[in-house]
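Project channel, design review

CF: Before we commit to the Lymnaea stagnalis constructs, I'd like one complete example in the thread so the newer folks can see what an input/output pair looks like. Taking Alpha-galactosidase.
RD: sounds good, go ahead.
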Amino acid sequence: MHFHEFLCCLVALSVYTTALDNGLARTPPMGWLSWQRFRCNTDCNSDPRNCVSERLYMDMADRLAADGYRDAGYVYVNIDDCWAAKQRDPVTLRLVPDPNRFPSGMKALADYVHSKGLKLGIYGDMGTLTCGGYPGSKFTLETDAQTFAEWGIDSFKMDGCYSTTEDFTISYPIMEFYLNKTGRPILYSCSWPAYEQASFPDYPRIAKYCNIWRNFDDIDDSWDSVKSIIKYYGDNHGNFSLVAGPGNFNDPDMIVIGNKGLSPSQEEAQMALWAIMASPLFLSNDLRNISERAKSLILNKGAIAINQDALGIQGTRIWQVGSVQVWLRPVLPKGSYAIALLNENQGGYYTSVTISLGDLGVTDNAVYKLTEVFSGNYIGTYGIKDEVVIKVDVSSVFFGKYTRTG
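CF: and here is what came back for Alpha-galactosidase:
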């Protein structure tokens, strides 16, 4: 981008938008994303079912539509890195999907996904290259935004490799301007604060331009990885939880339920904490080969209802004693709370936790009905001073809801 173009963009930004208000992500977005499970597998000759290709995304769209995920709210089919050809079109400078792996073109793939009642997301980078070494958008932000809109893209994730943090505060807002300028609703996912962990990212500014934003390490298919993310969100440095709300959400990365790395109880813990944290629910697994138990958990109506609560308030860790921590999130009906008790102990037997709402800082002296979220089972009715003893197994979670009844 030349200097005079840069100045024009700044002027346009100040006139065109004062806050992100594209009507999207009023609750955390839900869908499927390829990266964790399929990474940058481009070997379609020896692994045609699992390479990054139009076939993979069509298969996942089929499963989302046919197996109940779409109807539960999982509507985004998100392409990640390694989808593009290594070179842009030499005449138009437009991005080009790899012709061997996406022979029908991206517009045709978007049309197919849309025909299933779903939305298509795509990946790019604000630097000169993507993290996988494919063409970045540093000098073609407007062209790429126009291209995505013409293809029928519904979500754009912009990474930050091969760039500098000094560029972030300018380039991310400029891309938001160009996306909005297309007139097509495109959910904007930023990796802006993920590259600024050593400092305190300007979250209010980030929320002004991004619908969702990654702010920590990539998730791996392991309990240690899930726990590290939970810890980061529990520590909540800079109170980034306060910025979350309808239209803007912190993104702790993908749901890895249904893969190989988590035990059944650990999968429940991830689902519960991602719901409490008002996180985007982007599955990264093979929906063609998933157990009924994992599928049932992903589709659990109680957990999804907590995640999608219209207040959009991000839950926080209230306290931690040893390996046991308690999280609380205000939810509807007004005055109600979702609660998660996470036991990170890796050995032994159940840990008993005695709590009351008053212990957790609730001062509304009302009556609350406590239910277990995953099963819907009724536990009891309590005032804020009434204690309840919860037993939580090792590497497991209790996920409950206190519904205000009077």
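RD: helpful, thanks. The chain has twelve helices and 16 strands.
CF: The radius of gyration is 22 Å.
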